[in-house]
Amino acid sequence: MRLVTSFTCLAVVSLATLARGEEPHFTGEIYATGGGDAPQFLVESGAKPTGDGQIYFERYTDPAGNLIGEIQATYEAGRLKAVKFEQHQLGETSSAVIADGKVHYSHTSGGKTKESTEKDPGNLVAFPALPYVIASNWDTLHQGKTIDFTIPAPARRQGIAFQITKDKSWSQAGRAVTQFKMVPANPLLRTLAEPKYFVFADDSKQLIEARGRTLLKTGGPGNWKDFDGRVVYRPAAK
């Protein structure tokens, strides 16, 4: 697996500030990558202003509406301050709090909590905020440049460096769309992990599809497996 070499943007990843009262809200159906007509899971995602910042969220359910996972990220003045993730399938909770130049991680599983701390790399991006980061850096990515950032992974109690580049553009049902590719920044990890893809409508700069590893699992206790899926998004009805 190769990553096309391009100019790298080393500045802090920019993230547009939501106007007061603006609350983008989307729903999505999550299908297995291998195919299948019926969605395996459903997702609600969006953002809402709060105080001097924003909260970005994703909420996962099964087709019957049972909550199986949720993640919430709090931003202030465009910088990530905290992430909380609850994985109800596994009965786990985890969090990352950014303060005093450090990232404080906590992960609870089976009634046991482990904590760790690492230096704030200065370019943290929470998973639910990725579509907004891409939209905020639209021109940079279309110029062939790379966006570098670190996603805090509270369950692993560490941050993982990633890169996003523009992959390709095409016309879909008469509408121009662009696909962006996300890969680990570490070359070794890049050989072990498949890319994650995000497809956007060019006119609205809104996410319409995502493909790759999700935060969800299939199987059951003692036999949980990572789930690779295709998420089809649409604006939620108002």
Structure write-up:
The chain is mainly β and 238 residues long. It is built from three helices and 15 strands. The protein has one domain. It has a 15-stranded mixed β-sheet with strand order 1-10-11-12-13-14-15-2-3-4-5-6-7-8-9. The N terminus is likely disordered.
Describe what is shown at a glance.
By secondary structure, the chain is mainly beta. The chain contains three helices and 15 strands.
* Alpha-beta content class: mainly beta
Radius of gyration: 17 Å
Q: Helical element count? A: 3
Low-confidence stretches: 1-12, 17-22
Range of helix content: under 10%
The strand count comes to 15
Main sheet attributes: strand count, strand direction, barrel closure: 15 strands, mixed
Average pLDDT confidence is 88
What's the structural blueprint in terms of helices and strands?
Elements: E1 8-9, E2 25-32, E3 41-50, E4 53-61, E5 67-76, E6 79-87, E7 92-99, E8 102-109, E9 112-119, H1 130-136, H2 138-142, E10 146-153, E11 158-172, E12 175-184, H3 187-192, E13 196-201, E14 206-218, E15 225-235
Parallel strand pairs: 1-10
Antiparallel strand pairs: 2-3, 2-15, 3-4, 4-5, 5-6, 6-7, 7-8, 8-9, 10-11, 11-12, 12-13, 13-14, 14-15
Labels describing this entry:
single chain; 238 residues; mainly beta; 3 helices; 15 strands; disordered N terminus
